[in-house]
Prior knowledge:
Radius of gyration: 24 Å
Mean pLDDT: 77
Strand order of the largest sheet: 1-2-3-4-8-7-6-5
CATH topology of the domain at 88-247: Protein Transport Mog1p, Chain A
Structural class: alpha+beta
CATH class of the domain at 88-247: Alpha Beta
Strand content: 15-25%
Low-confidence stretches: 1-62, 66-83
Shape: globular
Helix content: 10-25%
Amino acid sequence: xxxxxxxxxxxxxxxxxxxxxxxxxxxxxxxxxxxxxxxxxxxxxxxxxxxxxxxxxxxxxxxxxxxxxxxxxxxxxxxxxxxxxxxxxxxxxxxxxxxxxxxxxxxxxxxxxxxxxxxxxxxxxxxxxxxxxxxxxxxxxxxxxxxxxxxxxxxxxxxxxxxxxxxxxxxxxxxxxxxxxxxxxxxxxxxxxxxxxxxxxxxxxxxxxxxxxxxxxxxxxxxxxxxxxxxxxxxxxxxxxxxxxxxxxx
Length: 250
């Protein structure tokens, strides 16, 4: 199991640098292309080339028994309901399905989306039209040492606990005071940690929940806001829209 702080510390150090340097970039500029959810990563498509139908030589008679229809069907893993299960499919949702999350979360609009079924990771980024706020949504399916899936089904899952602890460690490691709270939506409970003015007038919030066996992490940066209620309302609106989108995937 990873030690606390191993997940969020690199992100916290770079912090998306949205308002401290990247705010002047055009939204979407330089973003990696969106992975089409209909085509699994690593699968190439090609146009079939017509060819002449080959001649068929008569088969020699054999004494081997001819399988019955029932026997032939049982040899087909798909028909028999057997075969290797798709490790990326949890609760009827695959990694590429997260491309179908809302294009807008609260006041933020999506600027990029990346999914990788091989590593079971999806990363989506959102930005306010005036570039006053930016969020990154990271969704990951934890795996065991042997590569098998380890779905998150409660907040007591090791990855959930380590993930939340790493949020706290990331902020405290940089000398920031941490504000902890929970945010509830009709479908999800979010654990949040926040540090104020971490980067020249930028507030930094990290929230975490789980859905479809995945750990869902939200990192939100915004122009510093002294009013705690107003600050929390903006984050809560984002989390409510995200929660609704997650429910709609199943």
